[in-house]
Amino acid sequence: MFEHLIKRAGIVIEALPYLIKFYGKTIVIKYGGAAMKDPELKKSVIQDIVFLKYVGMNPIIVHGGGPEINKYLIKQGIEPVFVGGYRVTDAATLKVVEKVLGGKINSEIVSMIKKLGGKAKGFWGKKGKVIKAFKYYKKDEHGNKIDLGFTGQVAGVRYRYLNKWMKLGYIPVLTSIGVGKSGKTYNINADKAAAAIASYLKAAKLVLLTDVRGVLDKDGKLVSEINAYKAQKLMKAGVISGGMIPKVKSSLYAIKKGVGNVHIIDGRVPHALLLELFTDFGIGTMVVK
Ligand SMILES: Nc1ncnc2c1ncn2[C@@H]1O[C@H](COP(=O)(O)OP(=O)(O)OP(=O)(O)O)[C@@H](O)[C@H]1O
Ligand SMILES: [Mg+2]
């Protein structure tokens, strides 16, 4: 008569090897703006993260918010501009980025974690000065600098400070807005920020949740594993484009810097994070050296 309950217990115990493997380990989760559109899904993502914390891992969230920023920009009559997947950030755009990413999305995630029983602490820009930044110049094919305005690059991360909060039981929620030496703020691509944070924290895993199944090939088929060589080829051919360029580049950077595993997975799948962490069934794209 308890059969269905015994079955359930069996499912729970299947997680044991993964719990042992990741106990006390840092897991950086890049939560893409593109994957936060559905409120139900949003709840399941945050639930998974609170779950990870309470089974003894150290999850940390770095979030994006591209679609929401674009919506606000268009409302104000500003056309969003991207070069090679990077947002061109003029002063007016930076204001919107700070308002939407820092003001709105960050606090929404923090309050959702609290509502679901976790402890969370939001950091962005001057709040905690967790990400130090400097101006980022992209280079064109001739090596000439392209000015992207207040678009920044990570200069450093206050990882000891983050570790302190995590040890106190908090889930840090980071917006990818960094602070320069002069106190100027910079908008940083959230994938790049997540990869840098994962490297500084020596994370066991970096998971990038997005709104596609992973990296897709020219026929739209999922590439289950990608290395630097394959990525270069797909970028050159234009198969990897837009926001997937900084995502793949950042993933490769993190792997090179010693992050244990890097996965680009579909944030639209309910409990995608649990599937990734507690099963051998590799969903999405695994990035390797
Ligand atoms: N080869 C490819 N495989 C999969 N997606 C690709 C590919 N090339 C380009 N893309 C685009 O990359 C997008 C994902 O990057 P995007 O920056 O839009 O989302 P995100 O990083 O999850 O969110 P945010 O930038 O708001 O944090 C996909 O929605 C897809 O349109
Ligand atoms: Mg992106």
Give an overview of the whole structure.
Helix 3 (about 40-55) links the parallel strand 1 (about 25-30) and strand 2 (about 60-65). By secondary structure, the chain is an alpha/beta fold. Helix 4 (about 65-75) crosses helix 5 (about 90-115) and helix 7 (about 190-200) packs parallel to helix 9 (about 245-255). The strands form four sheets. An eight-stranded mixed beta sheet has the order 5-8-2-1-11-13-14-12, with helices on both faces. The chain has a single domain, classed as Acetylglutamate kinase-like (Carbamate kinase, 3-Layer(aba) Sandwich). About 40% of the residues lie in helices and about 25% in strands. The mean pLDDT is about 95. The longest helix has 25 residues, at about 90-115. It has helices at about 5-15, 15-20, 40-55, 65-75, 90-115, 160-165, 190-200, 230-235, 245-255, 270-280, and strands at about 25-30, 60-65, 80-85, 85, 120-125, 130-140, 145-155, 170-175, 175-180, 185, 205-210, 225, 260-265, 285. The protein contains ten helices and 14 strands.
